[in-house]
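**Protein record**
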Amino acid sequence: MAFVVRSARVPPNSATFEEARQRTLEFFRKACRSIPTIMQIHNLEDVVTISQLRSTISSEIRKQAHITNPKVIDMLLFKGFEELNNILEQAKQRHHLIGQYVIGREGLVQDHRTKDQGISDFLKNFYSSNYF
């Protein structure tokens, strides 16, 4: 496990957009290669599949596709590597991963069931405004 953590290093600054693009692809490959380790460490097999996590990672990267400044891309890559290291070093627990990458941010699992039957209108409005 320590080998995986050491292999996820922050790259130096990019000189051009194409170099930053290549570093982004390298980050995506490293993140995808570490998914089985993450699933084993955090026991996520019963919640999500490898392909679903891979698509979540790619969607997080694609959210920033409009950025063309290499310095901004390098900063985002730094944040991505820090997030990956935090997950691999178990600085984030299982419920953090499930909340951020499985359920939250319009994630993979959408809960459309009605849980608030028989509750007052005030509580229904409160839950709808403060529920993920």
The chain has a mean pLDDT of 82. The first helix runs from residue 2 to 7. Residues 116 and 124 are 7 Å apart (CA to CA). The chain has one domain: 2-129.
